[in-house]
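Sequence, please.
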C-alpha cells in the first residue's frame, strides 16, 4: 500500500475524487471502486477504528460504501475546500461535507433508522499508486454524527 514517490498530477486527482470516489457514493454505485482502487487498498476511518472493521481490498471498500449507504440512503458528499497535495509523494487530501438522513439500518449492530437528518464534515487523505488509490485515512467526528442521528445522547 506504499504510495508512489512522485508528485501526483493535481488535475487528475481532482477529477479522480469528484468523478470516481464521490461519484461511487453520491450515485449509490459502490462497484465504481473497482476501477479507481488498487487490489490491496486499505480504508482507515473513525468507523473502522471504532468497530475494528478491517477494510482491505476493492471488494471490501465497495462493501463498506454499501454498508454506509444502507444506513443513510440519501447521503450526499460535497467538496468544501481546495485539495492539498504533497510535492514528494502521490498523496492528496480532500475536505468534504456529508448530509443526509438516518432512514436505513446500521447492520451490524442492527440499529433501525431514526429519520433524523445529519450534517457533518471531515477530511480524506489518499495515497496513490499509478492512477489508483492504495490507502485512505479519513477523519471526522463519529460521536457528533451519532448524536445528530439519535444513536447517542
Amino acid at each position: 500500500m506504499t504510495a508512489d514517490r512522485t508528485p501526483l498530477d493535481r488535475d487528475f486527482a481532482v477529477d479522480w475524487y469528484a468523478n470516481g470516489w464521490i461519484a461511487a457514493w453520491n450515485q449509490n454505485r459502490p462497484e465504481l471502486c473497482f476501477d479507481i482502487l488498487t487490489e490491496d487498498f486499505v480504508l482507515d476511518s473513525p468507523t473502522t477504528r471504532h468497530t475494528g472493521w478491517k477494510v482491505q481490498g476493492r471488494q471490501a471498500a465497495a462493501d463498506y460504501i454499501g454498508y454506509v449507504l444502507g444506513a443513510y440512503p440519501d447521503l450526499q458528499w460535497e467538496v468544501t475546500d481546495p485539495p492539498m497535495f504533497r510535492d514528494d509523494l502521490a498523496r492528496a487530501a480532500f475536505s468534504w461535507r456529508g448530509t443526509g438522513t438516518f432512514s436505513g439500518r446500521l447492520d451490524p449492530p442492527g440499529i433501525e433508522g431514526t429519520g433524523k437528518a445529519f450534517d457533518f464534515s471531515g477530511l480524506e487523505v489518499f495515497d496513490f499508486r499509478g492512477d489508483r488509490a492504495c490507502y485512505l485515512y479519513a477523519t471526522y467526528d463519529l460521536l457528533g454524527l451519532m448524536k445528530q442521528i439519535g444513536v447517542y445522547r
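The mean pLDDT is 96.
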